Amino acid sequence: MPLGQPSSAVHVQNVPAGSHSSQPRTPTLVTLHPVALFSILDHYLRRMDKQERVIGTLLGVRNDSGEVEVRSSYAVVHKETAELVAVDMEYHRTMYELHHRVHLKEAIIGWYSTGSNLDTYSALIQNFYAQETAPHPAVHIALNTGVEEGQEPGVKAYVSSPVGVHPKPENCVFVPVPCEFRFHDAERSGLDLLTSDSASPLSDLETLAESLKAVSSMLDRVLGYVRSVLSGEVKGDPAVGRYLMDTFGADTGELEKGGFRDSLQDTLMVSYLAELVRSQAEVSSRLALVTAS
């Protein structure tokens, strides 16, 4: 559905955006998680040849201190010409409903685009997402891939502010907001592998073998310490003994009560959603190509 032309008004239907904080507040900090960043990059790499930029929806949570946490994202099919910009709202609505079934706490918090161009069309899209996130301000993340001449790659976050006594949807100012990259401890190993300087990345089996070697080395150290304590060579530390007893004395039921099972389920669901987004984007791209031809 077309969002409009630079001089026309915008009329769109609101999409349920889940639960928000009770009091609207301008974001003071935007944090971006690796899953959302990699999804944006994957969308950009799979774009059509003539497509200058891609856009999509940002999902996450807000807190009372004004921080906005971007946890995930999905691609949205859109088309830009010299006359108008159009966004596939039905696709956007369907993708959010699917995501919301799995992540009830995550709501629509804004949108992303690649490139550094904040033009009139960006203002129209911002106005559309402002209706999705109302009464909270919509967050826009601009990912510069470094393809544009004279531009360095990077990520910037913005919120919009209306201009004029009777502002129009296409008239707004994008105000920068501090943006940080954040990841959990469980994601560190994957990020280290992606950012390593190795010319030939390890395969899954090689990575598993390296992890098993590290675990075996740590077990050998623990076994050597225990034998030294039993033989009287080293005085045992009660704190270390209690830690080892808690670690090796836990049964399968206790492990399942912890966060391991939940973390595994979250990881598998993120992987499933990523594959679903890629498949949907590929199908939509092919349909758009067939329609254009």
Automatic annotation (TrEMBL):
Pfam families, sorted: JAB, MitMem_reg
Composition bias, Polar residues: 1-11
Gene3D superfamilies referenced in this protein's UniProt entry, alphabetically: Cytidine Deaminase, domain 2
Main location: cytoplasm
InterPro entries, A to Z: eIF3f, EIF3F/CSN6-like_C, JAMM/MPN+_dom, MPN
Signal peptide, first to last residue: none
GO biological process: formation of cytoplasmic translation initiation complex
Gene Ontology cellular component terms for the protein in this record: eukaryotic 43S preinitiation complex; eukaryotic 48S preinitiation complex; eukaryotic translation initiation factor 3 complex, eIF3m
Domain MPN: 30-164
Keyword GTP-binding in record: no
MF term (GO), any: translation initiation factor activity
Entry's localization field: Cytoplasm
Keywords from the named record: Cytoplasm, Initiation factor, Protein biosynthesis
Assembly with partners or alone: Component of the eukaryotic translation initiation factor 3 (eIF-3) complex.
UniProt family annotation: Belongs to the eIF-3 subunit F family.
Protein name: Eukaryotic translation initiation factor 3 subunit F
Originating organism: Neolentinus lepideus HHB14362 ss-1
